[in-house]
Specification:
Helix content: 55-70%
Distance between the termini: 83 Å
Structural class: alpha+beta
Largest sheet: 5 strands, mixed
Strand order of the largest sheet: 3-4-5-7-6
Shape: elongated
Radius of gyration: 36 Å
Number of strands: 7
Length: about 500
């Protein structure tokens, strides 16, 4: 019987080791990219926990004080967790403090809650067999002992299963709810996460100290003296566990709200700046077109007057006329802002990618376009910036690869469909539950906003945005209603 219980305990601590490597590995990067990393963590943790258990089982026979035993066991367990985290993971982060304390708290709460809840089951089994003995149902002491040992072993197995289930489910919920695992928490945020876990840990220490009382030098469980504690103590422990779990969820909700608020402010500033930029560009290019028209007329008159002159004057006027011809727009789509933006972006892009092919032959806007020009500028500006960045990255890796950006518009009724296709290196970083690909820029808080910017603009016109990858071609698709957009205060209509 004792050996069987010992084997069960070893199985439980091994499972706790598995849970530990799963928990830490979900937040921290392993130092060694090997499947053995997690196995070593699990085995070493189980060995350390088993060693602590054996050591304190021996010192208890010498009359060691219960409160000292509880404190030393907690301290040693935390030390093992810290050493394993630092040795096998890149754990020099504030979040590691929370991970260590939370794991120990969840493990202890699971253990004490299961033990107290199932204690009454063990007492009930003993009471049942005592009644059977009184009624003479057992013919021999051996049969009684075998039945009693089997029953207690079954209770012990069930108890260990409950502990394992509570531990794994709780840790998995923390892992799933804590979605922003790369988020660098601050000290105040750490305290917000740490307090429920630390409180739960101290409650377990307190229970370990007071759970056994002495009555006439005979050990007695505290809930045997006060039966109501069989319900109250597990309730306190489970509430403490829930405070840890929902504290994590609340923290993540706060992170998402702050992130959404920051993104909204950034988007608003970007859009306002782009609106002003678009209007200024439209005004400047309109003025340039007018000046060019007037100057070409003036040059034509001067050319007629200088017909009799030959030589340097006519040659100079011819060169000047060619210079004005080069001021013509390379791209014409039927929208002034789109033409201005595409020409400007193209001249900027060819400095970075000299052989870039930008095809706008199928980018034609309808005459009755009701979508604001600056919203067209927002969509095209962000799409071109992302496409140029992808083409530049591709050319840096493969100088001989084709770099291209293609635009297509389709109109179906009052729906305007816009597609932007560009070549890229075929590597797109996505994270679970993230809507957009991850930017490769180091300043991730202020970059990677292009697709979100486009999406918010498209939704003003009751539209949708989607993207897909075909081989090494990134395709961005937008569909909008050709009507005035909803002004909800996010962008001001000018």
């Amino acid at each position: 019987m004792y050996k069987m219980v010992e084997l069960l305990y070893m199985a439980v601590v091994l499972f706790q080791g598995y849970c530990l490597q799963y928990f830490l590995g979900s937040f921290l990067e392993s130092r060694w990219k090997s499947r053995w990393n997690g196995l070593c963590v699990a085995v070493l943790y189980a060995a350390g926990l088993y060693g602590i258990s054996r050591m304190f089982n021996q010192v208890l026979t010498t009359g060691y004080n219960g409160y000292r035993e509880a404190v030393w066991k907690l301290a040693l367990s935390l030390c093992i967790l810290v050493v394993l985290a630092l040795c096998f993971y890149k754990a020099f982060r504030l979040i590691t403090v929370f991970l260590v304390v939370a794991f120990q708290a969840v493990a202890d709460i699971s253990k004490y809650a299961a033990v107290i809840l199932l204690a009454i089951m063990g007492d009930g089994v003993v009471a049942i067999w005592n009644r059977c003995v009184e009624k003479g149902l057992f013919k021999s002491d051996r049969a009684l002992m075998m039945t009693l040992n089997g029953s207690m072993l079954a209770v012990q197995i069930f108890q260990y299963l409950v502990i394992a289930m509570l531990l794994f489910i709780s840790l998995r919920k923390i892992v799933r709810d804590f979605k922003e695992k790369d988020y660098e928490i601050h000290r105040t945020e750490l305290m917000f996460l740490l307090i429920p876990a630390a409180a739960g840990l101290l409650i377990c220490v307190l229970l370990r100290i007071i759970i056994v009382t002495l009555e006439d030098n005979v050990p007695e469980m505290l809930y045997d003296r006060y039966p109501i504690l069989v319900v109250v103590l597990p309730a306190i422990l489970l509430l403490s566990l829930l405070s840890i779990l929902y504290g994590v969820k609340l923290f993540q909700d706060m992170v998402y709200r702050n992130k959404a608020k920051s993104e909204r402010v950034i988007l608003k500033n970007q859009v306002r700046s782009l609106q002003e930029h678009m209007e200024e560009m439209e005004r400047i290019y309109s003025a340039i077109r007018g000046m060019k028209h007037d100057m070409k007329n003036t040059l034509a008159v001067i050319g007629q007057l200088s017909m009799e002159e030959k030589g340097e004057l006519q040659e100079y006027l011819a060169d000047l006329n060619q210079t004005f011809d080069r001021l013509d727009m390379r791209f014409r789509t039927g929208n002034t802002v789109a033409d201005t933006l595409l020409n400007m972006k193209y001249h900027e892009a060819v400095r970075l990618v000299p052989d870039l092919e930008m095809d706008v032959d199928k980018l034609v806007f309808p005459q009755d376009l009701k979508i604001h020009s600056y919203d067209i500028g927002i969509i095209l500006g962000n799409a071109v910036d992302n496409a140029v960045r992808a083409c530049r990255k591709l050319k840096e890796k493969e100088p001989g690869a084709d770099a291209f950006i293609r635009f297509v518009t389709l109109q179906k009724g009052n729906l305007l469909v816009l597609k932007v296709e560009n070549s890229f290196d075929g590597k797109l970083v996505r994270r679970p539950r993230e809507e957009f690909p991850v930017t490769d820029k180091p300043d991730k808080e202020n970059h990677g906003m292009g697709l979100a910017n486009i999406k918010n603009t498209v939704e003003k016109y009751h539209g949708t945005m989607d993207y897909m990858v075909k081989g090494r071609v990134f395709i961005l698709s937008m569909m909008m209603k050709n009507e005035r957009g909803n002004e909800d205060g996010f962008w001001s209509d000018r």
